[in-house]
Amino acid sequence: MDIYEDEKMVALYSLVGLGAVGWGTSPDIRCASLLLVPKTLGKEGRLFVLGYALAAIYEGPAANLRYNLNEVIASLGCTVELQVNNTRAAWRVSTAPLRAVFKDLLGSKESLKAKTQNISKSFEDLDAQVNSDTGFTLENTTGSEGTARGAETHGARPPKRRLSTQKMYELKTKLRCSCEGQEYM
Question: Where is the composition biased (Polar residues) (predicted)?
Answer without folding.
Answer: 134-145
